[in-house]
Inverse folding.
């Protein structure tokens, strides 16, 4: 029922905010020369943006829950309570990221660069939330080899989208701030890779 509900929510969002949905993927695939104009239109529509972010949290939270059950690492026995914790955890992580980038942009007088990177981060998150839907269905209703293959494919998809996010982020910020690739690599290590390694270390400790 949850998978059906997520698919219905996605369908309603696509129908109710068709223009926002189309502009979202135009910016994502960079298929138009009017990038700045479409970006401004997306920024000026906070309601669909917020709802699509909520859809990402719901999809990614369920995906994290299923992965934890697949590896039999369930700190909470109740499936739905763990799902709630996963959603809250994702929300907190990206809220901290949003506030941290805003503060850094204000401190170093680089608000426009920070806003550009935040825009890219949440655009990719929205696409991840949509891309996870078929993998959620496969993970929920299959087992054995098909389940394992679906998980591997989902990891490849998420990894590819994160790599694409880094490329877009580097290109966007490079247009507004003078820095070299090494500085961007240091940022990735400090704010993107290090938190993931810390979470992985904590999971190994509890396991």
């Amino acid at each position: 029922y949850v998978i059906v509900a997520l698919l219905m929510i996605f369908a309603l969002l696509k129908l109710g905010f068709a223009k926002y949905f189309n502009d979202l993927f135009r910016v994502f695939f960079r298929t138009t020369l009017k990038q700045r104009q479409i970006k401004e239109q997306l920024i000026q529509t906070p309601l669909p943006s917020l709802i699509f972010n909520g859809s990402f949290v719901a999809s990614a939270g369920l995906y994290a829950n299923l992965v934890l059950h697949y590896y039999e690492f369930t700190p909470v026995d109740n499936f739905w309570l763990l799902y709630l914790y996963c959603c809250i955890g994702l929300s907190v992580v990206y809220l901290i990221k949003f506030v941290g980038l805003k503060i850094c942009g204000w401190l170093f007088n680089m608000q426009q660069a920070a806003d550009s990177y935040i825009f890219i981060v949440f655009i990719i998150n929205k696409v991840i939330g949509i891309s996870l839907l078929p993998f959620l269905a496969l993970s929920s209703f299959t087992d054995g080899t098909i389940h394992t293959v679906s998980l591997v494919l989902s990891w490849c998809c998420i990894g590819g989208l994160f790599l694409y996010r880094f490329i877009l982020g580097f290109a966007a910020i490079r247009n507004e701030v003078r820095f070299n690739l090494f500085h961007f690599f240091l940022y990735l290590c400090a704010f993107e890779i290090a938190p993931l390694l810390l979470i992985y270390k904590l999971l190994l400790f509890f396991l």
Notes: The two ends are 31 Å apart (CA to CA). The chain has a mean pLDDT of 83. The CA atoms of residues 124 and 165 lie 6 Å apart. The helical segments are 2-16, 18-29, 35-43, 46-70, 79-107, 111-141, 144-174, 181-206.
